[in-house]
């Protein structure tokens, strides 16, 4: 099994901005996608909006202009009515003025003033005010019957050619009636605002001039005119006819260019021209052709005034036709405006619908991507976004699905890693329990070797534990052997001690016996007479001495054998202590390797992150156990070194004792030989009485030597006993050390061998 050096780590999450971190500071970055798309749509529709607005403004301006023109043309009707009613009373005596007509004039003036006040034309409002003042002054004069027909005519002409005519012009200018694309409308405007308002009153004014001549002719000249008056009437009629001819040419040109107007207006104009021509004919016949006339002013007015209806019927038809055109233009402008508004509305609706479609299309894909991203953020990695387009959103959806598939695969891998990590944690927990048992001394425990990153470490720890158990088993065996050897050594030293004690006692006995022999020999020397008795006693003493020497030799032989046995055992004990030292060295090496392995395991655990924290604790416990084992082996090595030193000292002492025992044995052998000689001398003493003195002196010398040898033996035995006691003390110390070692090893539960 191999261990990967790559640490387990969860998949990296997508970067998200931290709380409080600012987003991009661009102008558009603060708006949503919908708002951005709407902004783009607005910008895209801005040219259309500007164009539509411009067209709308133009159409609305045209509509307003047409409305204003129609309103102005409508005001023309009031001006025409006032002009007609004023012309009805022009030339009449104030007392003869129709009061109903006068009231109508007041009503028309008030209506004009009210209409002008509703407009924004300041000049028209000013003229309307002045007109109202003049009309009111005229009405007051008429109601007061002040003045003459000529004065009333002057007042009416002042109104007709002053404020009233100016109102036509000002309204045409203020209402911008000439700003019209239709040429027939321009012709009608020209007729309604300048030609007819001027021509009709002025041409009628020339008739009024003829009526004034008629009034003078009738009142002052009895109906007979003068040539001067004839010329005056001719000039007035000529100027009037010229104005009418100019009006006819203008109208005929308009009708020629616009036949549709001719079909509507020409009959009224023909009737007007016919009535005007009759009016001029009447005055021409009465004042030019005839030299004397019977026609009165009242009769003339009764004939002339009805022609006003045809004149203003044509004027009204012209104004109505102009109103119709303005109405058509207003309606066309309104239709154009409505059509434009409808087009703008339709374009806006199309743009809106297109925008909404684009927004739904964009936001649909974006919302699906957003929902998918939110689902991914919630851990739903099986989420997929349907690919419904081939645009960038389709590419993004495809990329999103690929990323989601990758995230799902990563999730499965992470889940597998999590399960593996949980299994690793469980294995670590189980291994921690095993290591705790091992740390408590139960070396029979073994961790389960798995296929994960912990497998090699567990296998190494199991192997180390097995080797440590084997080594500790050997240490226990060696300790037991040391204990047994020390006990045997104690037994041997006890035997040696007993032998040396016996040797010492025998040496003392021999010393006493030699002293007794010496005394007896001296007595024999003194008592030469008792030679035989002394010889027997000497023979007996020599026999006893020989026997004691033999016993001493036997004891010395036993001491030498015991010493040799002790030396061999001590040598074996030294060899065992050397083996224990080698075992301790092996344990120390294993502890060092264990420490190194635990260090590597700590490094591996540190690299594993949070998953290796508990394993790091295990490695630390193993390293501490290795340190304790190393410390124990150092103490054992120290003890063994001391034991080996003591054993070496005991070996040297035993060797010295052996040499001394050999020397004592040699002395004892010499003593035995001498005692044999004493025995021979004692046997010969009976027959060699004459040599008793010589033999006695020789025996005294020999006995003194024997006594000296016996004393040496006693001293040697004492030294041997001291050495044995030292050996016993060393053996007892070795036994105590072995017992402590056994006590230290009892905390370990070793596997059965």
Automatic annotation (TrEMBL):
CDD domains: HAMP. Residues 717-744 form a coiled coil. Residues 478-714 form the Methyl-accepting transducer domain. Residues 8-20 have a biased composition (Pro residues). SMART domains: HAMP, MA. Residues 1-21 are annotated as: Disordered. PANTHER family: METHYL-ACCEPTING CHEMOTAXIS PROTEIN MCPB. This is Methyl-accepting chemotaxis sensory transducer.
């Amino acid at each position: 099994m191999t261990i990967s050096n790559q640490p387990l780590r969860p998949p990296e999450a997508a970067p998200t901005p931290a709380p409080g971190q600012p987003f991009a500071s661009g102008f558009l970055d603060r708006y949503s996608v919908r708002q951005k798309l709407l902004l783009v749509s607005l910008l895209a529709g801005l040219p259309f909006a500007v164009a539509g607005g411009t067209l709308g403004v133009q159409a609305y301006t045209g509509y307003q202009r047409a409305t204003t023109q129609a309103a102005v043309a409508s005001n023309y009707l009031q001006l025409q009515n006032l002009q007609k009613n004023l012309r009805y009373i022009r030339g009449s005596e104030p007392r003869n003025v129709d009061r109903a007509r006068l009231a109508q004039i007041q009503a028309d003036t008030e209506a004009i003033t009210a209409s002008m006040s509703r407009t924004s034309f300041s000049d028209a409002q000013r003229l309307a005010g002045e007109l109202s003042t003049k009309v009111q002054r005229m009405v007051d004069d008429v109601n007061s019957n002040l003045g003459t027909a000529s004065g009333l005519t002057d007042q009416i002409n002042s109104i007709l050619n002053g404020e009233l005519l100016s109102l036509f012009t000002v309204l045409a200018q203020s209402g911008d009636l000439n700003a019209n694309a239709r040429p027939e409308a321009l012709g009608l405007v020209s007729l309604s605002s300048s030609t007819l308002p001027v021509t009709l009153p002025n041409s009628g004014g020339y008739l009024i001039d003829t009526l004034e001549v008629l009034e003078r002719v009738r009142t002052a000249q009895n109906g007979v005119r003068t040539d001067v008056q004839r010329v005056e009437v001719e000039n007035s009629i000529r100027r009037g006819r010229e104005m009418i001819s100019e009006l006819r040419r203008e109208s005929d040109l308009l009708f020629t260019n616009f036949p549709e107007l001719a079909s509507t207006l020409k009959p009224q104009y023909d009737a007007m021209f016919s009535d005007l021509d009759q009016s001029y004919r009447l005055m021409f016949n009465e004042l030019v052709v005839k030299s004397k006339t019977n026609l009165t002013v009242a009769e003339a007015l009764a004939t002339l005034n009805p022609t006003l209806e045809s004149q203003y019927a044509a004027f009204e038809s012209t104004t109505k036709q102009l109103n119709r055109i303005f109405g058509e233009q207003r309606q066309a402008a309104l239709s154009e405006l409505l059509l434009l508004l409808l087009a703008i509305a339709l374009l806006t609706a199309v743009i809106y619908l297109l925008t909404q479609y684009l927004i739904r299309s964009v936001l649909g894909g974006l919302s699906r991507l957003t929902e998918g991203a939110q689902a991914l953020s919630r851990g739903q990695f099986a989420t997929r976004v349907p690919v419904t387009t081939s645009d960038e959103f389709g590419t993004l959806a495809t990329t999103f699905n690929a990323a989601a598939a990758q995230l799902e695969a990563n999730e499965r891998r992470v889940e597998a890693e999590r399960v593996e990590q949980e299994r690793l944690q469980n294995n670590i927990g189980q291994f921690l329990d095993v290591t705790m048992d091992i740390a408590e001394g139960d070396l029979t425990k073994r961790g389960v070797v798995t296929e994960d990153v912990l497998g090699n470490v567990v296998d190494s720890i199991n192997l180390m534990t097995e080797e440590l158990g084997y080594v500790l088993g050997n240490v226990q065996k060696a300790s037991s052997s040391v204990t047994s050897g020390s006990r045997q050594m104690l037994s041997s030293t006890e035997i040696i001690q007993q032998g040396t004690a016996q040797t010492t006692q025998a040496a003392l006995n021999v010393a006493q016996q030699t002293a007794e022999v010496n005394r007896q020999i001296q007595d024999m020397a003194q008592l030469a007479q008792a030679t035989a008795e002394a010889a027997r006693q000497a023979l007996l003493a020599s026999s006893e001495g020989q026997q004691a020497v033999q016993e001493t030799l036997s004891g010395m032989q036993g001491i030498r054998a015991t010493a040799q046995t002790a030396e061999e055992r001590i040598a074996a004990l030294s060899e065992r202590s050397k083996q224990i030292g080698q075992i301790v060295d092996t344990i120390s090496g294993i502890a060092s390797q264990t420490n190194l392995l635990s260090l590597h395991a700590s490094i591996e655990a540190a690299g594993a992150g949070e998953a290796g924290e508990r394993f790091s604790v295990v490695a630390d416990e193993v390293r501490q156990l290795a340190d304790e084992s190393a410390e124990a082996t150092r103490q054992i090595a120290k003890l063994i070194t001391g034991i080996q030193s003591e054993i070496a000292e005991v070996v040297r002492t035993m060797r010295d004792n052996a040499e001394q025992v050999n020397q004592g044995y040699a002395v004892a052998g010499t003593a035995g030989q001498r005692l044999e000689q004493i025995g021979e001398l004692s046997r010969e003493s009976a027959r060699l009485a004459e040599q008793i003195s010589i033999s006695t002196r020789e025996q005294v010398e020999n006995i003194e030597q024997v006594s000296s040898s016996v004393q040496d033996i006693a001293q040697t035995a004492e030294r041997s006993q001291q050495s044995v006691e030292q050996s016993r003390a060393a053996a007892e110390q070795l036994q105590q050390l072995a017992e402590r070692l056994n006590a230290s090893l009892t905390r370990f539960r070793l596997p059965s061998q």
